Known about the structure:
The protein has two domains: 63 residues; 163 residues, CATH 1.20.1330.10. Helices cover 70% and strands 5% of the residues. The protein contains eight helices and six strands; from the N terminus they run αααββββαββαααα.
Amino acid sequence: xxxxxTDSGSNARLTGQIATARQRVSVSQEQLASxxxxxxxxDDPIGADTILRLRTTQAELKKFANNAASLKEGLQVxxxxxxxxxxxxxxxxxxxxxxATDTVVVEAREPIxxxxxxITSRLxxxxxxxxxxxYVFGGGRIDAPPFDNSGVLNATAASDVTIQVExxxxxxxxxxxAESFVSDSTGTILDALKTAATAIxxxxxxxxxxxxxxxxxxxxxxxxxxxxxxxxxxxxxxxHLDEITDRLTQYNLSVEGSxxxxxxxxxxxxxxxxxxxxxxLDAILQASARFGRRSLLDFLG
Length: 301
């Protein structure tokens, strides 16, 4: 028994072919306009999922890069503060050296002591340096400066605060704690300078006063060494951050390259595809037009 394709079946098939061809033309046109092969997840579900994961990785890399940049800024503030700290120590050393000589007359001692008072206040300010909302040398004491207004060192034990700056988990301390350079085995630099200023003004025991001044001079060498060690640590951390930042940049470029390879369209290939899909659509439309013009003899077979 012979089967005959009905007119309605042929019409439905042509309609479906036209819709499919037009969809392909639309996709090709969109790819050429956007430069992307994937403009929505349905274009390539697997590729879209891969891009989503790669973009998530890039967001994490940006977070680490921001952490590194913020940390480096704080370390540079700390390095500048320690540089000034060292300069102020040098001036204190010059004043104490002068005060320790027997040729300094009593009238000249008060100006030396007054300048030393100013140096003490300046060193306290430098130890309490802030970068943004946190104290550079405060360690884990987020809201409290290393020294209070009276020049007393914070009784809360200092601890390093670290920030993750790489996906692998690299942690770098946010700064140097004040205790690492303002304190020696017998007290703080502020206490030492206050004792020296009192001795310069005179306590009535000239021998004891000279001894106190010379002891402070010796201790200044210790404080100077401690500040130099602190600057060395900060410098090492800054260099490490520069290396990490370079790695993050290269990693991000690599990820972006992967995204582009998956997401972007080959424009030349897309143009050829558009031409081919347009040709196919035209052919189907022409066939549809011929189907619509069939005579009675065509239907009778």
